[in-house]
Amino acid sequence: MIAEVGGSLAAFYIARALGADDLAAYLWACLPPLIAALLGVVRARRLDAASMTIVAFNLLSAAFVGIGSHSPDALLYKDCVVTAVVGLTFLATTRIGKPLTHLFALRFRENESERFEQLWAREPRYRTLQRRICVVWGVAFLVEAAAKTVVVANMSFDAAYGVTQVLPFLAIAVAAAYTVRTARSARRAGSAARIS
Q1: Total-model pTM
Q2: 50: enclosing H helix or E strand
Q3: Distance CA 52, CA 123 (A)
Q4: 122 to each of 56, 119, 125, 169, how far by Cα in Å?
Q5: Are 146 and 88 in contact (CB under 8 A)?
Q6: Residue 135 to residue 90: CA distance in whole angstroms
Q7: Among 30, 102, 137, 142, which one is most buried in terms of CB atoms within 10 A?
């Protein structure tokens, strides 16, 4: 993810340095994460939910460029909307289907995917835990969208673009820290239950 965001920032600022207007630089910046996600799909030889989410986010961002105003600030506000949609999607999956956090666990912990699927099928506590973690991720993305909106409203386009590319790291860091702490706590509770 660091490489993808770094690639986006590099593509944006290089395009700007080469004389690209705001719209062109914005579109160039969409390419690195899209390419990275597609390479991940090729390497894994399958399209999983996590890759589909990354690709969909980037395609949605690029598609929004064609809708409505092409003013520089409008482009960044559209990203705020896309981030909010991602947050709402996380929240929706806590009630419909399997939480995105569970699907991401399957992708990023492939060696344990069978165990995670068994836990989902057999353990109500695991399902509750995944839903709670997914709510935290959804709220983190909604807070990120709100923060991006404030940044775009109060900074120049170039400065706001850079800041809005860093804000996801903060949202992800908070949600990931919560996820790790919660998972460790659940493992300790599970070990204690097996001992007693």
Answers
A1: 0.73
A2: helix 49-65
A3: 27
A4: 31, 5, 9, 34
A5: no
A6: 7
A7: 137
